[in-house]
Structure formats: C-alpha cells, structure tokens
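Can't attach files on this board, so I'm pasting raw text. These are the components:
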Amino acid sequence: MERAAGDGSTRHAADLLAVARDSDREAFARLFTHFGPRIKSYMMRQGMGAARAEDLAQDAMLAVWRKAGQFDPGRAAVATWVFAIARNLRIDVLRRETHPEAPPEEAAEIPDPTPAADATSDLARQGERLRQAITELPADQAEVIRLAYFSDKPHAAIAAQLGLPLGTVKS
Amino acid sequence: MSEPRHHASDALLVAYAAGSLDERLAMVVATHLALCSACRAGNATLDAVGGSLLEALAPTAVAGDALGRVLVRLDDDVPSPPRRVAAESWPEPFASALSQGDPITWRRIGLGLRHHVIDRGDGGRGTTLRLLNAAPGAAVPPHEHGGLELTLVLYGAYRDGSDVFRVGDLQEVDEGVKHRPRALPSEACVCLVANERPLRLTRRIDRLMRTILRI
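---
Top answer:
Structure tokens for the assembled complex are below.
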C-alpha cells in the first residue's frame, strides 16, 4: 500500500498548503490517515504505551492543523516538518519543558542562500535519497541510526555507538 | 559577524535532531545554530533523516474514532503561546529563555570569573546551564569533566590550548578531558556553558576554593 514516495510527498505538501490556506478538512483527513498511524508508531518506539501514543498522535496532528501556516515547502519536506512537530511534542510531554527550537531564519544573522525555484521537488528527492541511503546501509548501521532517533538514550551512549555513516547520508 | 569555525559534532547534532539531548545541552546547540549556517544546514539534513525514518515506520492503527476526535478539536481556541520578550543583545532561543527566567545577577566566583546560573540541574546532580563571564585574560582553573561540557561564545574570545574560540564558536569537551581555557587579554568573554555533571577541579587548592566559593 506504499505509494511512490516522491508522488506522496508532493501530494502531502499540496494537502498541507490547502490546510494552511483554506482550512481544508479533507486535505487534513488525508494527512491524518497517512501520518497519524506513523506518529503513533514513533511514540511507541520511544517506549510509550499504546494509549498514550494514541493521544499524542492525535495531539500532534492537531498541532499540524494549527501550525500549517508555518510550513514552508521550500525549506522542508512534509514528513520532516511533521517529524519535528512529533519530536517536540514528545519532548514537551516527557520533560514538560520546551525543547529549545532553532529560531526562524529571520532571527539568525546569516541569511541562507536563496532556495532553488524547484526546492520542493529537490526536498522530495532529498527525502527519497535519504530513505534510500538508510535502506541500503548494512543492517547494524541502519539500526544505529534508528536507535539514535527512536530511543531516549543519553548523548554519550549514542556518541559511543556512532561510527555513524553520516557521510553516506549527507548528499 | 564572521561564521563560526568550531562546530557541533555530528553525534551532537544527531542527538539534538533526535530530541534525545538534555534540554540544557539542547539550548546551547540551538543557540549555536542561530549563529552558524553550516550547522543549520546539517541540522536540516538530520531533521530530514528523522522525516524519512518517520515515513518508513510501519503504521500502527489508530483508534477508529481518532480522526473524528481530532476534527472536533480543530476549532478549539488555540492556547496562546507564552509571550516571548527577547532580551536585546543575546542570540535566540537563549534570549527568550533568559527573558523568562531571573534577571542576570553576576556572582563573583573568584579569579576574575563571574557567573549567572540559569539551571542548577536537578539539585546539582544533573546538567547545569549558566553564563560565565571572564575578565580579560582570566583563566578558568584547570578542570576535568564528569560528563560532556558545551561552551558557546557569546561575547569576546578565549584560548584553550592552541585553539581560539570566538563569538558563535561551540566547544565540545568530553568526559575525562582536562583543560584550562583563558579569556583573551583584550576583552571580557561571556559564554553560555552547559555541564552534564558538575566539573571536577583538578588542583587541590582549587577544590578547596570551590568549597569556599561553592561554585
């Protein structure tokens, strides 16, 4: 039932923009159907019980609705943006403190180079490349990356495990 | 301002992107990101890795009425986010965090050093976050770490061994490393410092001083 990732992410972006622009509930429902169950899996991978993971998945999707206006298709793929929301929500809940977010680019002193005109498809391709790169990693290395993202290990423990093939993953 | 030359390590950026970093360490990393376009780019890539991993996760069925329960909440009043009054002259997100805490009161800790403790770290056993203000030329006594130490330069510059750290630079010092940073003689140096565990001063006299000064 997996659709082609490139097409999927382009459609997710269109849906999210429709949510931002028109408060489009059908578009939101499609995003919910796709991401809700994945966020629930993400929360469960962090050791949360199914009921709590379910609540947080719903809360995360509510945050997707509310923050849709902040989504910039030139800056991040939808999955990336949703991941950041789910991650920050999890941190908020676990620590009851806000994860310090990197400020919006305007607040930073150094402007980024102007994104390319077809940044959205670039990002879709980048996401696909990353997914591909992770798939092709030796099982133990892929597991290290998954562990780094999906377990609440202290930094030192992860650092010790990281013979991280970031060079492979960075394009 | 020129770009920083000392960056967050990959391992640190991964832990930050994964959300597994202690929030005090995360504050230092996030503020470094505000000042460093190279690490911002790395962070964006690592967020994209997170997005890819999320995308690749096998879905877990949500409750049959999950969508319906969210749909009825869509029109709820949005709780207004805490008002952010950014203190001038500090980079974000540290500026906002600082504005929500106590006003800065520099406490002398001797040897030309003053500090303002922002987070004592769970009664002194966990990670601490503080501003450290070194007079021109002042040196932090030789010390080693029970855990990771992150130092971000906000004003001025300091030297540690053969390296000079300037505004925006992040120094990552691992557990067990002994060092003796010293502010450059030309101007005072202010740094945001997170320590995973209280540092251990290595000379007995300093240990004694520490007892007296309770740093």
